[in-house]
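Entries read sequence, tokenised fold; example below:

***
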Amino acid sequence: MTATTHQATCVAIDGRAILIEGEPGIGKTSLALALIDRGASLVGDDGVLLEQRDGRLWAMPHPNTRGLIEVRNLGLLTMPCIEAPVALVLDLTHSAPRHVESANTIQRAGVALPCLAFWPDSPVAAIRAELALSLHGLAS
């Protein structure tokens, strides 16, 4: 299958990618940076390639922005990047519910993925994202 461009930021933790979606300025890159600070690896910032492989959805760096992350007030910085299978979609939104019993399912490039509406404005958002991956993410 051909890879398609998808507007999102993406990091990987222990070989499982979190696709971080949301409106411009909501904090996708900030969450990615916090996760990278905790040991995650960058896949791509503000755009990734998605490709279906053997029933899994893989996220890859976009060739136009490979290894680049835009850090507010600092500009474009370079860092290592990887590709990884997507295990979870976090939709950053201020209308996220306070409690959920299970993740919703969303389709990306023909693959069903668990998706959580995720409140972005929290000093512990990275810890919450890691917990969301462990509780709701697809296994590797």
In short: The longest strand covers residues 84-92. The first helix runs from residue 28 to 37.
